[in-house]
């Protein structure tokens, strides 16, 4: 099940994916919307096994030309700052807070929190996106500590570089070196699999996943 602020848009995207993917409207900034989305997911899926926190607003929402013309933090609109933080950080907190009790009741489950390179978190002109992802990473580490003695496993996953998503401005879409979104597929599948049963509080870089997995298997 995938979510988006618009029920219609989420449904349209789900329709482009193989069955039985479903799309539902859920605004991660709004506790009531998150709760309603959780209830619908539980009802339609019969339960929840994995949560992937991947909600995100990028820099283009506060500075459409952030690649070419970085904006100093004091010029960032307050409303834009709050919207990115509420989506990228508060959203992770709200969704996990509603889903975790269901995972605990089942005695098991997985949470994958999508994050970003540390260099991006500190990059010039990247307020508020950088701080939002830094906060989400700290939140993930605390989630993992709080859930360490349970059957719920928490891990971080990042692409390993700038990725060609809707966050990239059109004029930068042909920039060399952009990663395809599919780079995340293999590590996500693995983190949802039986092989990852004991994996907890790891920070996995998708571009380095094969090497990371080989080291883990050898160790």
Can you characterise this structure?
This protein is an alpha/beta fold and 219 residues long. The protein has two domains: 1-47, no CATH class; 55-218, Rossmann fold (3-Layer(aba) Sandwich). It is 42% helix and 12% strand. It contains seven helices and six strands. It has helices at residues 7-15, 31-45, 78-106, 118-121, 129-146, 185-191, 209-218, and strands at residues 2-4, 23-25, 50-53, 109-114, 152-158, 203-205. The strands form two sheets. Strands 3-4-5-6 form a four-stranded parallel sheet, with helices on both faces. Strands 1-2 form a two-stranded parallel ribbon. Helix 2 runs parallel beside helix 3 and helix 3 packs parallel to helix 5. The model has no long low-confidence stretch (mean pLDDT 92).
**How many DSSP H or I helices?**
7
The total tally of domains equals 2
For the record, the CATH class of the largest domain is Alpha Beta
Strand content: 5-15%
What class, by secondary structure content? alpha/beta
For the record, what is the CATH homologous superfamily label of the largest domain?
NAD(P)-binding Rossmann-like Domain
How many strands? 6
What are the segments in which pLDDT stays under 50 over at least 5 consecutive residues?
none
Give the ordered list of helices and strands.
EHEHEHEHHEHEH
Mean pLDDT: 92
**Going across the major beta sheet, what is the strand order?**
3-4-5-6
Helicity level: 40-55%
Shape: globular
Q: Measured on Cα atoms, how large is the radius of gyration?
A: 17 Å
């Amino acid at each position: 099940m995938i979510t988006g602020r618009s029920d219609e848009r989420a449904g349209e995207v789900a329709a482009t994916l193989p069955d039985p993917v479903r799309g539902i409207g859920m605004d991660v900034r709004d506790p009531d919307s998150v709760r309603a989305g959780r209830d619908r997911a539980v009802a339609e899926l019969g339960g929840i096994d994995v949560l992937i926190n991947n909600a995100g607003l990028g820099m283009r929402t506060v500075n459409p030309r952030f690649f070419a013309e970085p904006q100093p933090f004091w010029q960032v609109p307050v409303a834009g700052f709050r919207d990115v933080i509420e989506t990228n950080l508060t959203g992770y907190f709200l969704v996990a807070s509603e889903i975790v009790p269901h995972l605990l009741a089942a005695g098991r489950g997985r949470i994958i929190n999508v994050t970003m390179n540390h260099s991006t978190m500190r990059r010039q002109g990247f307020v508020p996106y950088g701080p939002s992802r830094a906060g989400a990473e700290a939140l993930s580490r605390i989630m993992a500590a709080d859930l360490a003695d349970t059957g719920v496993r928490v891990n971080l996953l990042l692409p390993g570089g700038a990725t060609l998503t809707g966050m990239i401005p059109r004029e930068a879409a042909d920039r060399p070196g952009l990663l395809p979104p599919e780079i995340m597929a293999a590590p996500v599948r693995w983190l949802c699999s039986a092989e990852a049963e004991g994996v907890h509080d790891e920070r996995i870089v998708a571009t380095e996943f094969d090497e990371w997995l080989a080291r883990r298997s050898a160790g």
